[in-house]
């Protein structure tokens, strides 16, 4: 299984009145991690959009384990949990500097045509990208 890692320095603006990272910022970090995974594999989400496709989130699950605070550095670990004909599930771990798990999550996506939002298989629009996801999905080591 291929895992991409991206460090994020936590900014003051990402915290709430309690001094901890506001929960919605984890979703932004997940997007950063997903984009970094795609880049690490040699593809670009911007390229997918340029070709007339989008990959919206259709399901999201996140479990918060240990609060993060301003001044810390978060590491976002991202991988392909599963990849099928139409759906891709990404897995995430967001870690403290000491490797304590701050959050775990999954997000499920489909690829759709931009003009009508009809789902389309990644295999039809980019067979190389599709094959890479099949190769690296969890459980295929």
Automatic annotation (TrEMBL):
Q: Which InterPro entries match?
A: 4-hydroxybenzoyl-CoA_TE, HotDog_dom_sf, YbgC/YbaW
Enzyme class, top EC level, equals hydrolase
Q: Does the keyword Transmembrane helix apply?
A: no
Gene3D superfamilies named among the record's database cross-references: Hotdog Thioesterase
Question: GO MF annotations for this entry?
Answer: hydrolase activity
The record's keywords, sorted A to Z, are: Hydrolase
EC code(s) of this entry: 3.1.2.-
The record ties this protein, via PANTHER family, to: 4-HYDROXYBENZOYL-COA THIOESTERASE FAMILY MEMBER, NOVEL THIOESTERASE SUPERFAMILY DOMAIN AND SAPOSIN A-TYPE DOMAIN CONTAINING PROTEIN (0610012H03RIK)
The name this protein carries in UniProt is Thioesterase family protein
């Amino acid at each position: 299984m291929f895992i991409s890692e991206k460090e994020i320095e936590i900014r003051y603006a990402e915290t709430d009145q309690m001094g901890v990272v506001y929960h919605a910022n984890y979703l932004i970090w997940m997007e950063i991690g997903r984009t970094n995974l795609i880049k690490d594999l040699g593809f670009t989400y911007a390229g997918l959009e340029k070709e007339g496709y989008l990959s919206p989130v259709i399901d999201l699950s996140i479990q918060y384990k240990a609060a993060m605070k301003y001044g810390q550095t978060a590491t976002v670990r991202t991988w392909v949990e599963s990849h099928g004909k139409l759906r891709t599930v990404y897995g995430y771990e967001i870690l403290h500097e000491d490797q304590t798990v701050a959050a775990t999550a999954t997000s499920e996506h489909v690829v759709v045509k931009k003009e009508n939002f009809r789902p389309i298989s990644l295999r039809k629009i980019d067979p190389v990208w599709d094959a890479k996801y099949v190769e690296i999905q969890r459980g295929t080591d």
